[in-house]
Amino acid sequence: MCGIIGYIGKREAFPFLLNGLAKLEYRGYDSAGVALLSDELCIQKEIGKLSEIQFEEEEGKIGIAHVRWATHGRVSKENAHPHFDCKNEIAIVHNGIIENHRELKAGLVKRGHVFTSDTDSEVVSHLIEEFSAEGCNFEDAVINALKLLEGSYTLLAIKSGENKIVGARKGSRSLTLGISEQAIFPASDVLAFLEWTNKVVYLKSEDVFVADDELGLCIYNLAEDRIVVRPIDTVKCDAEEVKKGEFDHLMLKEISEQDETILRALQQNEEIVQGICDKMRNAAGTFFIGCGSSYNACLTGSYLFSKAAKLHVNPVLASEFENYEHFLTDKTLVFAVSQSGETADVLDAANAAKRKGSRVVGIVNRDGSILARESDGQLFMNSGPEICVLSTKTYTSQVVLMEMLAYALAGKYEEGLKKIGSLYLDIYKLTSRSMREHLAKLAAILYDKRDIYLIGRGAQYATALEAALKIKEVSYIHAEAFAGGELKHGPLALIEDGVPCIVFVSNDNKSKILSNAEEIKSRGGYIIGVASEREEIFDYWIKVPEAEELNPIIQIIPMQVLAYQLAVYRGLDPDKPRNLAKSVTVT
Ligand code: AGP
User: Fold this and answer.
1) Distance CA 200, CA 185 (A)
2) Rounded distance, CA 308 to CA 411, Å?
3) pLDDT of residue 386
């Protein structure tokens, strides 16, 4: 997820661009850059947060700027945006993922283009250059370039000698135009220009706009192949509302970011990962501690490490860790898992471990947090700020890190990165409008149930626990998860006609979990299957791809959406569930 902003108007662009970037920094702070057009094109870019970068104030009433979360290409100055063409005449900033960038780049390199980055975005500036060289005017060169792109994008482009900004969007990433009497501000979201104007044009997917220095504005839609008119709306909400973008709630927005955030979780330093694995192999006992969703990620990890690397680790609730402290020595390795890095139970447990001389590795999202600062080593989740009280994108980022460690422990690190990275499109589909509608129908069936039960085996048991947590904390419906094999040891007594049970099916334990489901069905239960194939026993089927050892990433996503739909159906605020806080800084 990145942030982009542009300015074309009657005043110097620089201060507007920098001020706007600061409002967008919650979308990414690996690097930042700005391009300004006066007599010539001037581009500055650096790695780090805005507060750490000193940009020179350059002249120019036209400019574009960018803050980056790296998804394709490591964090480096070369990979920072804006990107430019071979002649430094064209600059672009981009948010999204260009799925066919490898083929496009290969063709461009073959035709003599020289690339300076290993991002997917840079292909766009060279494509525009190529179409310009063929005689297209600037806007047509941009349009022809866009027609070759596969994937989703929001994009701004400027060119020496052209007093205009051309921009476009495709797919779920938003692009809005702030409209004032002095200027036009294209931006990822209205937050970037809200202090200067509340007049906004919301561009639709496949809209291309051309804004010129007379503040003329033309919008063309690629799909409809014609000029279109988009109304000028008034932003009627505060900044907090605005962060939702096009979504009704932050929870849905953050669920929908997971196609990208899992890629960001993959951006790790391999040396650090391998070093951590060595410590795991040599430790005299390894604990994974966390609370809530973070504990569920720890439990998931314990199954993955056992299966992939035959390594035993101890997942323990941080609030229960004091009962195990007598096992700790200076040879023990403790993973403290916490997206906020501020959870008091986790910090207490980590400090207890350090008092015993154990080494503490933090798996954490916020790099300024206490856990990030006080642990001996860290793996950062890179999920970006998670504002909704519920952990959704940070949970799957934690699971991605567990998967990465498991693959690395099994000596399959590269293979693992590829397999996890290939989930991008599956996750994009699992958070799509059609899946949301399918789960809204299920919410209409479940919304007034007193209890919802969930069963899974192996890592799917941890998924069932996490799904139960999501449902209960946001819809207030009692949801309880059991290991499938445990039903006959008591929980079956709870089953009566119509009681709903969600069953997580994966290839490695399919027949066993389906016979557990049969135990429920034969007593009148209503079976909801999370599975790659429809089974006779299902009363409702949620279709997910079979991802084998990666099922813990895939199968939780429809559950997050179901929990969201249940809350909405029950008229609750998914972003602020009662009695809960985003970070529990008290024990
Ligand atoms: C999960 O949806 C809840 N917000 C809660 O269980 C959370 O996971 C728990 O409080 C731990 O938070 P942390 O990851 O910031 O430590």
Assistant:
1) 9
2) 10
3) 86
Q: Which atom belonging to ligand 1 lies closest to the Cα atom of 346?
A: 16
What DSSP character marks residue 422? T
The CATH number of 245-422 is: 3.40.50.10490
Quick one: DSSP state of residue 544?
-
Bridge partners, 208 (sequence order): 168, 220
What is the dotted CATH code of the domain comprising 431-575?
Answer: 3.40.50.10490
Q: For the chain, first and last CA: distance in Å?
A: 34
DSSP code of residue 533:
S
Pocket test for ligand 1, best of 578, 584, 586, 587 (most atoms within 8 A of CB): 584
- List pLDDT tens digits, range 335-354: 999 999 989 899 999 999 99
Choose which residue among 250, 255, 299, 339 to substitute to test ligand 1 binding: the one with the highest number of ligand atoms within 8 A of its C-beta: 339
Which ligand 1 atom is the nearest neighbour of the CA of 392? Answer: 2
Provide the strand spans (E) within 365-450. 377-380
* C-beta of 125 in contact with ligand 1 (< 6 A): no
Q: What are the 10-residue block averages of pLDDT along the chain, 587 residues in total?
A: 91 96 78 94 91 91 90 81 96 92 97 95 98 97 97 93 96 86 93 90 94 97 95 76 76 93 92 96 97 98 96 97 96 97 92 96 86 92 87 98 97 96 92 94 97 98 98 98 96 96 97 97 97 98 97 98 97 86 67
Which sequence positions are flagged as catalytic?
A: 2, 582
Cα distance between residue 267 and residue 78, in whole Å: 16
Kindly state the DSSP code that residue 549 receives in the 8-state scheme: G
CATH number at 3-241: 3.60.20.10
Whole-angstrom distance, CA of residue 236 vs CA of residue 195 = 13
Residue 292 beta carbon below 6 angstroms from any ligand 1 atom? yes
Q: Where in the chain is the domain with CATH 3.40.50.10490?
A: 245-422, 431-575
Is 294 close to ligand 1, i.e. is its CB under 6 Å away? yes
Residue 350 beta carbon below 6 angstroms from any ligand 1 atom: no
Instruction: Say yes or no: CB of residue 338 within 6 Å of ligand 1.
Output: yes
Interval between CA 394 and ligand 1 midpoint (Å) = 9
- Is the beta carbon of 293 within 6 A of some atom in ligand 1? yes
Q: What are phi and psi of 128, to 5 degrees?
A: -65, -40
Gap from CA of 580 to ligand 1 centroid (Å): 10
Residue 363 amino acid letter:
I
